[in-house]
Specification:
194 residues; globular; mainly alpha; 65% helix
Length: 194
């Protein structure tokens, strides 16, 4: 970990500048604009996973990990000024990252052990039921348990959740997909990657 932690405000600002400058069609998943949003989400997710790994290697304790995660949260959850269509997509990325960060925190607080005996699918399905009852705290806690299992190398198949109604849980599951990729193929996304 460098002096700026696992994710710097400068790195975030560089992404924001690129997003503001990039042409973007919200109706299309193709093109550099859409890819930038995906890369941004993956970049932050990888930073979160790197922080978990540093904790596991004893570089810092649980309290220091939570402090590091809170610093990342403060950076990436900031409201940004940009075109409305880009802002809407960015808010979706930020919502997805809530699930990622909650998963990492749950994993560390549980010392890498699952809190219950469910699997990823059971936790996500239960989270969707909690969302329907407007119990968002429970929904996020359940998604975080699913993510903690992913951090512990549980299998994750995003397509098996295509039937979820659009909402917070489906956005958080999008974050779990990034988390599963970061766990299986940890690499750094370069800010200038095309």
């Amino acid at each position: 970990m460098d002096e700026e932690g696992f994710y710097s405000r400068e790195r975030w600002n560089n992404w924001m500048e690129r997003l503001r400058e990039e042409e973007f069609d919200p109706e299309s998943d193709d093109g550099d604009g859409a890819r930038l949003f995906f890369n941004l989400q993956d970049d932050i997710t990888i930073a979160c996973v790197n922080a978990v790994e540093a904790y596991e290697e004893g570089e810092f304790d649980e309290d220091e990990f939570v402090e590091e995660l809170n610093e990342m949260r403060e950076i990436v959850m900031a409201e940004e000024e940009m075109e409305e269509n880009k802002k809407m997509v960015l808010e979706g990325v930020q919502t997805s990252l809530i699930g990622v960060m909650a998963s990492c925190e749950t994993y560390v607080v549980n010392s890498g052990e699952p809190a219950g005996d469910g699997d990823v699918s059971e936790y996500v399905r239960e989270a969707a039921r909690a969302e329907k009852k407007d119990d968002m705290d429970r929904a996020l806690a359940l998604v975080a348990e699913a993510g903690a299992l992913i951090l512990d190398d549980a299998d994750f198949d995003a397509e098996s959740f295509d039937d979820l109604e659009y909402g917070f849980v489906s956005e958080w599951v999008n974050g779990l997909d990034s988390l599963a990729d970061a766990v299986s193929e940890p690499e750094t996304i370069e800010e200038d990657e095309e």
